[in-house]
Amino acid sequence: MASEQTEALWRFLEERLTASGRAQYGLAPILWYGGALIVISAMGLFSTTGFSRYGGGFLLATALIYGLVFAGAGVALWRRSGPLHILGGLLVTVAVTMAPLATYAVQDLMNWWGTVPPGDYRAFYIWVKQGWVPMDLATVVVGTAALSIIRFPFLVMPIAVALLFLSQDLAHWVAGEGHWEHYRQVMMAFGLGVLAIAWAIDVRAKKDFAFWLHLFGLFSFWGGLTSLDSHSELGRLGYAALNIVLIGFSVFLDRRAYAAFGAFGVALYLGHLAESVFKDSLMFPFVLSLIGVAIIAFGVGVLRWTAALQAWMQRYLPAGIHALRPAHARAE
After folding, report:
1. Exposed e or buried b for every residue in 250-278, given b needs 16+ CB within 10 A?
2. CB within 10 Å: which end of the chain, N or C, has fewer?
3. Taking the model in full, what pTM does it have?
């Protein structure tokens, strides 16, 4: 989980920090984001050691103390202007990530695991298990409550991660062991629901509160779609068509994540065609290379066409459809 959070963090910093004007504070915000992630990761490590030695009561007390201290300090700093405003939002985000840890301790104390205990808390970030569902829900509820008080876009990150985990854990619960086709369908449906919520937030919100919801909603929907078993070329062609639609949505919503997932899906389909046609052929690696070059060239074309497409939509889309675009896209 730590490596995934770090990668997502740097993407967030690159695309959001400079755009929002916070780069004027220099290195400090980057160190704050890094420090916050270290605290989150450290608590996951500590919980395993602390739990094995002292039990769920000690773990619950630690999670509550951490949560209250970070939340109190965060709210106090949030009310101040300048760069400490950002630090306050980050501390509240750290406090929200104590919610699954506290819930885990309560579940252990009350033996609310169902038939099979899922194991160490660290496994929450690795394995899909139905016993994690209360922890997912607690994180969403606590994060949403915090977001209603602290309007800090990065606070959506733990909510979005919890929703992604919830889609997987809930799918495992609903589909049951071994029913992987149903599992994937539930993931797709859940991902579509998260994307719909993100779209609705985008249309109304002036700040970017939906970035993480789009990202992890796509993880759930696209991951479920890509893992579906397709035994016909028509089904695979439909998969490619859906990925092309995602690329089109990236322009309409002004969200590059859709283009990234869509382009990768198209590349997978083209790779399948290349393998089918050139299987066991010396030409196979060269064909794959050409596909990669073609995708790069397509990216260059998108870079040139995006501004023109955005201008065209601004001018010619009907008012009703234009109103469905995110606020930041309509403002261009």
Report:
1. bbbbbbebbbbbbbebbbebbeeebeeee
2. C
3. 0.69
